[in-house]
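hey so i finally got around to running the thing on that chain from the lab meeting. sorry it took forever, my laptop kept dying and i had to restart like 3 times. anyway pasting the input first so we r on the same page abt which one it is
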Amino acid sequence: MEMRIPLLKRCALFLLFLLIAQFSTSAFGQSYQSFLSTLEQVSKLRKFKFGPFWIFPTFHLKDIGYDDNVYFQREGDEQASDFTGTLSPGVSIYFIFRNRLLLSLRENPEYVFYFEQKRERRLNNTLSPEFKYLFLNRFVISGGYLNSNRRRRATSEFDVRANERMKSYTGRFFYETARQTSFGLSGAIRKISYEDITLPGEEIYLARALNRREKSGYFEFYYKVFSESFFFIKAGYTEYEFEHAQSSWRDSSSYQVYTGMRFPLLGRVRGTLSLGYKRLFPKTGGRTGFSGLVGNTGLDFRFWRLAVRLNYDRDCHFSYWTNNIFFNEDRYGAGISLYVMRFIRVDYSLSYGEAHYPEPMSVRMPDGSYEEITREDIYRVHSTGLVFRIIKDIGLGMAVSFWERDSNYFWENRKRMFIGGYVTYEF
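ok and heres what got predicted. didnt touch it at all, straight out
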């Protein structure tokens, strides 16, 4: 028997649909998910029901401990150390209407506390609504909106955290088969803005150098290989337009194509294998562009009492440093977790990265002379920890991490150690 909805509720739902439909980065992740798989994911996640809404709350405590170099200062400087902690509650709300319309809303406020460094205290927030609408049993139109306001290190080039404001609108039109194979078009507009960093001995005009608008369009194809694993191809074009006239020489465009496998959230193999090719063209003549391999891979293998993690990231990132439009960076990571007992886990991870700047520049050396260099940085991060199970998959962890950057530009050599604890929901 068909359910009848009162007129007032129909009007409220219609207004809610119009509100969400105005927003267009996905609440369900960066890659596309078929309408059916999205419904299945919601059914696995849902915890509480309030009227027609399914509610999934989260709560995270992280980075609770001691930071011996808050601002990533040089060894010769007076380094600022402090005690810190981050409280990050969140909620995801879902509404499903007749298995044809799915509305979602994700809200994640986050408070970062520092005991002495009051500048670093910050209330971050990320808001992300989305809609998906299935019609004619095969076509799906979706849109999403992201509003993020956070203080963070946007790239490895940042030594000091800076306020970053990001707004993006995304829309998709897809065709889906009964086996959840899907293909279609997507488009996005993203605006990114920063605050300037002004600290004693540290004045960096990030807003002037990096504020920009990005417009992109993609063709996407997803083919279901196993029960919940998908092969994908994603190809597109992006325009980068910088806000300030002083940075118009950074305006660029890029072509990129990615392919790989996306594995399920649950199972012995999790994560995404993604590799591709990217070519970035500066619009100002005489500037060096980028072309080559790019990747964004994170895999987690679980068997017996072991969990093994592998990561690889390669891309080019816009730079605020001197006369370089961008720097390209490779990051390799590996980690292992051993369950020595049912309630104790030992973790270790190693990350290695290299950053290369294409344009040479003249720098002043310690002896007062000037030398032309092409900057190259090497990053290393060692982390080890111990996690105790509290209940089910909830664990309390303690970790020590060592970060260092070695550069041929001596002024950028830095080190940092962090000792702290956290709560994990993936024991």
